[in-house]
Amino acid sequence: MLLTRGVADPTRAARPVPRAMIALALLAAGFVIAREIPALPSGAAFGLAGVAAVLGGVVKGWACRGVMGAACVLFGYGYFMLRVMEAPAPWFAGRSELVQVEGVVLDTPRIERRERSVMAPFGSDGSRLRFDLRLTGAVEGEEVKRASGKVGVVVAGVKESDARPRAGERVRVMGRLEAVEGKRNPGERDGRLWAAQEGRIGTVRLPRMDLIGPALGEGTVLGRAESAWLAFRASMSERAHEILLGGTPSPVKADAGGTGHGRASSEGRALLGALILGEEDRALREVRSSFNRLGLTHVLTISGFHLAVMCGVVLVVLRLGGDLGRWEAAIASSLILAYLAILPFNAPVWRSGLMVLGLIAADGLGRRHDRLAVLSWIAVVILLYRPMEAWSIGFQLSFGLVALLVWLGEFTHGRLFGVRLRGVVRGPEGVGSWVRGSFTRLVSTSLLCGIVATPVVAYHTGLVSPAAVLSSILMVPPITGVLIAGYIVLLLGVVAPPLAGVASQALGAMAEWLAWAVRWMDSVPGTSVDVPRISLGLALAATGVAVYWFVRGRWRDGAGWAMLAVVAGWTIGEFRWSGALARDVLVRVDTLAVGDGTCHLIRSGREAMLWDCGSLTPGVGERLVPRAARALGSGAVPVVLVTHPNLDHFNGVLDAAGPLGVRRVITGEAVARRAEERPASAEAFLLGELRRRGVEVAVVTAGDWIDLGEVRLEFLSPARGTAWGTDNDASLVARVVSQDSAGRSATGHEALVLLTGDIQGGAIATIGTEHPWLRAKVVEAPHHGSVREEAVRFVMGLGPRVVLQSTGPGRAGVAEWGPVRDQAAFYCTAEDGAAWVEVLRDGGVRSGAVRR
After folding, report:
1. Angle between helices 468-495 and 267-277 (to 10 degrees)
2. 604, β-bridge pairs
3. Which of 404, 444, 534, 622 could link 413 by a cystine bridge, Cβ 3.0 to 4.6 Å?
4. Which long-range contacts (CB under 8 A, 24 or more apart) does 259-263 make?
5. Which residues on adjacent β-strands are paired with residue 711?
6. 719 and 642: one domain?
7. What is the per-residue pLDDT across 163-200, written as a single tens digit (0 to 9) for each?
8. What is the pLDDT of residues 575-606, one digit of tens each?
9. Residue 757 falls inside a structural domain
10. 74 and 148 belong to one structural domain
């Protein structure tokens, strides 16, 4: 092979921007403006867009382009308002209402685990049966009135003997219908916007399966046809599962691992389910984290990469029978559609499917369509169907990286490995030449996509993977091999079922090795780095500079180095000031909405700590807490305090310890005593696992103190050696004071914040006796604001300006706390979402909440 190195011409990368790409950008701009500034009704926006379009037909030149661009933006604005912001209110009255509804089961009911947690063996793992239901009617008395929308049905208790609905069946369900919740915590998306585009109106919660029964009547002809299709689709999915994984997915929790397959699912089998069938399994928990940290997240979500591999397998098989011409595209498209039909319906799968099908169709028509234009029109179609995809990292990376490869793939390969001279007669290429060419293309593709995608991934996830390029080079070939083998096994299951069993065993062994290899690579230090939150401007600038270097960058390119220096300085500045509080703030407390539990993020200066980290909702430490801390601008949170031995105050600590960089955990004598006396307890597991990970564990009592930035936490209770009758009274209680006033008696200075844990009557009485003049600007409502007269009197006597109540719906809005609500700004996380309060240097207080 003749190569001319270093002669790739930058002008080859310069090409006119397709109009379709401009239209896509303008449509997305309209969406963004509508979401941020929803001031104009959709009708008015559409009217203005029409006027602009008509005006564009009159004027010429740049005026025409400007007016038509404005028309596109206005159309996008109006469309987003119509589809998302102006979505009709649900037909039911309140946020939560007891209803009886009828509808069609859209998918096979499966056991769903909301979150996974290291502490799951010590509490509920959140398992429940779930399926989607398309409503056809609501029962009112003896009458069934027409209703529309999609709901999720969640059953808390499932028994082996329970009859379960199947996909396509028409059922009647009685339960509590809850509206879709908005944003509760920093870093969360507003579920109402995503639900509006899908027509989802809420969730029906049932305590048991016997509240599900058959619907009355047979339904319409179209309804029966839909039911037949859904049933057929579910049966095909189960058959594919049986061929590939050796068993049908069961909705019954069959083992301690919670796999629901009648036997423990290995990591390899779980990996196959994710790679080929788009399924999620608890056995995939650790290896999925490894894929994410290595920059291989896209591999475990069926994407264009998977479908491209499938297309390759299909085309190789088809070409064994000769050249089929345009029939190749038709057959490949039909098989992809059939494959998509058996997969669980989700946006990433169908987004990738439409992308691949659109590109195949464009090529199959025999015309030289501009692939960037085709890709842009496909993206426009997807955004019109699902407008909120514009904010999805999956959408941005899927279309962005494919467009990047179409635009710069060949050019980058030429810059790195030289350009082949054209017009030279060559003989057939050997295997070695093919392998060498495939490897160099893998290197150039991995380098281009890995570097350009890094700022986008960092912006969305806070994760930078220095090993992303290397891991792609090393792991994409074996992953591709497993995919090819998986598709062949599926084909064998159809044409030669006896052979599929043996092939499936070999495939499982390949997948086990792949899972091991990914975990081993992830264990190498430095393969991934958690970074502070970066701004959208920095992400865009860094992406632009990366693209510039691939297109025009040279060692002696002064402009390129200058832009790189600006981005580097910008990055250092954002990292340096990330998490810094405003200059006038002495201490800030963020009370996260974790349901029935507690998690306060306390910051002063550039230091941060957590006061408790737990909830009755399992797994809050895996995503909710780290995501909120990052959204708030907090970097590492090296210290966590656990107030007392109740699971809802510490079951998120181990999950959050890694992402938050926890190095020290402080607790009281009650937790340490419980761990020592009960070696099999959750407390013993917590402290033992922390020590195994190298985290320091310290015990404090009344009279001890810790410094945090410019403030000090002074512990008031419990006294050393005190044995309370209840775990709640053993809660650590601390007042937060400025270090300037540290050491003064609690009766002589107003505390900035008083943190109370779950104290009840005994501890409250003792604190009142020992510190009768205790006052505080900000107070945590004791025991999640439970209804206790002594707690209300205690808080009233503290004279707070702000009271923080961390609780679930059960304790929200109780009348007994009315006097406190009248006296102070009262925030309840169940109603207001996450709340925050800042105590200023001049003694003032600022506060607010996500929903206020």
Report:
1. 80
2. 607
3. 444
4. 259/283, 260/110, 260/111
5. 708, 738
6. yes
7. 889 999 999 999 999 888 889 999 999 999 999 988 89
8. 888 778 989 999 999 999 999 999 999 999 98
9. yes
10. no
